[in-house]
Amino acid sequence: MLLVGSKFGCTSEVVTIVSMLSVPSVFFRPPDRAEESDSAREKFFVPESDHLTLLNVYQQWKSNNYRSD
């Protein structure tokens, strides 16, 4: 993945995806708020790939100055 990322000029994106895969899921889904959690997750959803969804989560977090609120 990293080698191909270099070939296509997307090494930063590949490293971000690999990093996101190496930590526990960023999506928290408490049983009593499952519907609300699913709705929030849909805002980040990229239909082509779960990996692109993780990249989108990171990019949105970065564009919001790394804020959690």
Brief sketch in words of this structure:
The protein is an all-alpha fold. It has helices spanning about 1-10, 10-20, 35-40, 50-65.
SSE arrangement:
Layout: H1 2-8, H2 11-21, H3 34-42, H4 50-63
Written description of the protein model:
The protein is mainly α. The termini are far apart. Helices cover 59% and strands 0% of the residues. The mean pLDDT is 93. It contains four helices and no strands.
Radius of gyration: 14 Å
Percentage of residues in DSSP E strands: under 5%
Distance between the termini: 32 Å
Helicity level: 55-70%
Largest sheet: none
* Number of beta strands: 0
Given helix and strand content, the structural type is mainly alpha
Strand-and-helix sequence, N→C? HHHH
User: Assembly state here?
Assistant: single chain
Average pLDDT for all residues: 93
Any idea what the shape is? elongated
The total count of helices amounts to 4
Low-confidence region ranges: none
Note the main attributes of this structure.
69 residues, 59% helix
